[in-house]
Design a protein that fits this description.
By secondary structure, this protein is α+β, with helices and mostly antiparallel strands. A hairpin with a 3-residue loop joins β12 and β13. α1 packs across α7. It is globular and about 70 Å long.
């Protein structure tokens, strides 16, 4: 009899190996360099057994997205046969935003589905009017790109080229999209193969039992961590910027012996702007904040997720109704949800919670047309500072909370796109003062060599990340465009603008808040 821990660790490694396969075979720097993708292994019920250490907003949303897909298939009388793969990006099913293309495959053993493998990858462009498809001006989801409902991309092991062409031809960068989609299919093939090898090695009964015990262990260890937390209620609120308006995210966190509940009643209604976070994003950000507050290494699977209850009233900024636009909800509102939950937890587990980190992914979407490359589109996020924490200063120049990607190397960006970087450095002094100061943000600046259209989707420009226990705020973010004709334009946190050759974009990300006086 083999230990369930060996089965569990092997399953985690399968998810990690899926990620390696996806990264190595992808075309876009966003996946190949920044690793903006995530993978997981699920049991026959669609419960998460194991996941790789990838992107928090992807990973937490898998629980919601896979459940939604399996329900959709059942409701529409669609069965999954051996060798099939489902592809989709509809955020109201998959749980994030249109750029995150999700691919789900069943794993068959002796004629029965015994598992699923799934991955999500941020495709750089999925159509719509803006390069990068994350449109700061969108008022509906239809202005953000092509919506793909659950559809069989692969049927009995053969790729449906009609579906592939439909998706690829709606992208402004078809060769890159085709390469990245094939990388996602390859990752699932790898995952399914490794699951079957695991069964061949240890036996089906042992593997299923190992998965079940891993889930039970994840739940028991999560509940054990909650025993040390102060029981009761704590509330907090924070804000997302929309022009001159503040969008409120309000949470009431309740810690009990049998679990933890986050209630977002009182949060703002959904808006006609791309800042709405679908339920999958809200669950992902909530569970992330709870997980990082735990003191021991809790397996992140269905066992852990089962102790968390999230109430997000329908029609609000944290659970919108279709066709509300959602591109920025995934990347910006998710950050604020994590911030507000951590702030509430600071009253319940004060010795474990840092001040706020940069609080924005600082999304940069840029693209255009030139005779050498044809149409090009580039996407990156830029890190910032983490908050000061009990006993330590914050960390400077890293991705914070709901993003877990790498920065794109300057050399890679310059080789692939008509841009040249002029500055890449730590934004010294941007972290908030305190007994333990916040980490500093980043200054990253570039010039375009060809006419281009730039979109920025960011936040924390009006007010910096909050401090805790008397610590000061971090410095807010800032974007300035130095025009080739000498004009200097100070920009808001969300905008689209046309650039001329020689124009310089200077981006300054927020520093983290300080902790303690």
């Amino acid at each position: 009899m083999v230990s369930w821990e060996i089965i569990y660790k092997a399953s985690v490694f399968i998810a990690e190996e899926m990620g390696v396969a996806l990264k190595r075979s992808a075309f876009s720097p966003n996946i190949k360099e920044r690793m903006d993708h995530s993978c997981a292994v699920l049991d026959s019920r669609g419960l998460i057994v194991a996941q790789a250490e990838h992107i928090p907003v992807h990973l937490g949303s898998f629980r919601v997205g896979v459940s939604n897909v399996l329900k959709w298939l059942k409701d529409n009388n669609v069965s999954l046969e051996e060798g099939d793969m489902i592809i989709l990006n509809d955020p109201y099913i998959s749980g994030t935003h249109l750029n995150d293309v999700m691919v789900l495959a069943p794993v068959y053993y002796k004629g029965e589905i015994i598992a699923y493998v799934v991955n999500k990858a941020h495709q750089v462009d999925v159509g719509g009017p803006m390069p990068g498809s994350m449109n700061p001006n969108a008022r509906t989801i239809y202005e953000e790109g092509l919506i793909v409902p659950p559809v069989k991309m692969v049927k009995r092991g053969r790729v449906d080229n009609d579906i592939m062409r439909l998706i690829v031809e709606n992208s402004k960068t078809p060769k890159v999209t085709l390469g990245d989609l094939n990388a996602q299919l390859a990752a699932n093939r790898m995952g399914a193969k490794r699951v079957l090898e695991l069964i061949d090695k240890y036996g089906l009964e042992e593997v299923i039992m190992g998965w079940s015990k891993a889930i039970d262990y994840g739940r028991s260890l999560a509940l054990l961590n909650l025993r040390d937390w102060r029981k009761g209620y704590s509330k907090a609120e924070d804000y997302i910027e929309l022009n001159d308006e503040d969008i409120t995210i309000r949470v009431l966190v309740e810690v009990r012996d049998d679990g933890i509940r986050a209630d977002y009643t009182g949060s703002s209604r959904q808006v006609d702007a791309p800042l709405n976070a679908v339920y999958g994003v809200t669950f992902a950000a909530t569970s992330y904040a709870i997980r990082v507050a735990m003191s021991s290494d809790v397996p992140v699977n269905e066992g852990f997720y089962s102790v968390i209850e999230v109430n997000a009233p329908e029609g609000t900024i944290v659970n919108p109704v279709k066709p509300a636009p959602v591109a920025g909800g995934n990347v910006e509102t998710s950050q604020r949800i994590a911030d507000v939950v951590l702030r509430a937890l600071a009253e319940l587990v004060p010795d474990r919670i840092p001040a706020a980190g940069s609080g924005t992914m600082m999304n940069v979407m840029i693209g255009g047309y030139d005779n050498e490359r044809g149409y090009w589109a580039y996407y990156e996020t830029i890190g910032g500072g983490t908050g000061g924490r009990p006993g330590k200063n914050g960390v400077s120049g890293v991705h914070v909370n709901m993003t877990n990607t790498l920065n794109t190397p300057i050399e890679v960006a310059e080789r692939n796109y008509p841009i040249i970087y002029t500055t890449y450095m730590i934004r010294n002094g941007s972290g908030g003062k305190g007994l333990y100061r916040g980490g500093d943000g980043i200054i990253r600046a570039f010039k375009v060599l060809k006419p281009a259209r730039l979109s920025i989707l960011a936040d924390r420009f009006k007010r910096g990340p909050y401090g805790l226990r008397g610590g000061e705020q971090g410095k807010p973010g800032r974007v300035v465009i130095n025009r080739i004709d000498g004009r200097i334009e100070e920009k808001p946190s969300k905008f689209t603008v046309d650039l001329n050759p020689g124009d310089e974009v200077v981006i300054e990300t927020p520093g983290g808040g300080g902790w303690g006086q």
